[in-house]
Amino acid sequence: MFVLGNFLSAAAQILSILLTIIYWLVLIRALISWVNPDPENPIVRFLYAATEPILDPIRHLVPAWKIGVDISPILAFLLIFFLQKFLVTTLLDLSVRLR
Prior knowledge:
Blueprint: H1 2-32, H2 42-61, H3 72-97
Helix pairs in contact: 1-2, 1-3, 2-3
C-alpha cells in the first residue's frame, strides 16, 4: 500500500504546483486588464488563452454586475483556494494513512 500512498502524495504535490501556477496566471491577467494591454502582444495572448478556460465558465454562472465589474477572477481565486485546502490536503492525508 505504500506505493499507492507515494503516488497520492506525488499527485497532491503536482496538483498544488498546478493550482499555484493557475493562481498567478489569473492574478497577472486581472492586473493587466487594468492597463488596457495590446491584444496582439504574445504574452497577453498567452495569458488570455491560459486563463479563459477557467474564467469563462465562471462568467456564465455569475453575470457581470450592472456597474461592469468582472468578479470572475475573485471567484476563481476562491475556487483555487478551496481546491488547495480541501483536495490537496485530503490527498496528502490519505497518502499518509496508506503508508
